[in-house]
Design goal:
11 helices, seven-stranded mixed β-sheet, 7 strands, alpha/beta
């Protein structure tokens, strides 16, 4: 079982869309068992799975140290994809965690406690985060085997990518863990001039080694997959679907 956290420091880059479609690809194409954890109070990944929970079940991962994790797992429309959902009520979690001892490792403690159950039932845990490095996200980053940063190709996103690498490097030294950001995926990719500025900056930096070469182009079908809950593995021809190449590159890098 691998834990993969999907992150960004800028909103609107297609992070949740990537988490959803990556998970569905691994499930439908690779026959993998997936547990999704939605840690964004907007609950977009939860909505992708066509769920509308009355409470933030994901908050229990941080607030109940005796939690049996199967009690907050919900089924989706996919046979081997389950989710721990959230909603806007998760917004007050940061306040509740701020004064707690060991707050950066709450999620790790719960996963360790439930490790046998998780390992027996899932091949991947995929965690979607909000665009920040708040306490819940530090939990999601620190528990992951690998972190995938998702970015679009604007110059503002380039600055966000640089910043999140620097911030996470400082945090990992502070909490004494290994820096586990190991991939950058470009989503909502277009070919405006500013896109070239982004890729030129990336190619000239030491972050280039993390870049997944296959980008995700800006297409309505990707956005539609969020709304309908129908992933692009079902709507795009294999030759049009970038996830075949993306997953192959991620596997080669040992991220998946």
């Amino acid at each position: 079982m691998k834990i993969v956290t999907i992150g960004s420091l800028k909103g609107g880059v297609g992070k949740t869309n990537f988490a959803f479609n990556l998970s569905c690809f691994l499930n439908l194409e690779k026959n993998k068992r997936i547990l999704l954890i939605d840690l964004d109070p907007q609950g977009n990944l939860t909505q992708c799975c066509q769920l509308n929970p009355h409470k933030s079940l994901a908050s229990d991962l941080f607030l109940n140290e005796n939690l049996e994790i199967n009690s907050v797992v919900c089924k989706t429309n996919f046979n081997k994809i389950n989710i721990i959902p959230t909603n806007i009520l998760m917004a007050d979690l940061e306040i509740k965690l701020s004064s707690q001892f060991g707050r950066e490792f709450k999620l790790r403690n719960i996963i360790d406690k439930n490790f046998s159950y998780l390992k027996n039932n899932y091949d991947y845990i995929i965690i979607d985060t909000n665009p920040s490095l708040n306490i819940s996200n530090v939990n999601a980053y620190s528990v992951a085997n690998n972190i995938i940063i998702v970015s679009d190709n604007s110059i503002h996103s380039w600055r966000a990518v640089e910043t999140i690498f620097k911030m996470w490097e400082a945090i990992t030294k502070s909490i004494k863990i290994k820096n586990n950001i190991n991939a950058i995926v470009l989503s909502n990719f277009d070919h405006y001039t500013i896109s070239k500025d982004f890729t030129n900056n990336l190619n000239d930096s030491n972050l280039n080694k993390f870049l997944i070469k296959q980008e995700i182009r800006k297409k309505q079908k990707y956005k539609l997959s969020e709304i309908t809950g129908v992933p692009v593995i079902k709507t795009l021809k294999p030759i049009e679907n970038p996830y075949f190449n993306i997953v192959n590159e991620l596997e080669q890098k040992g991220v998946l």
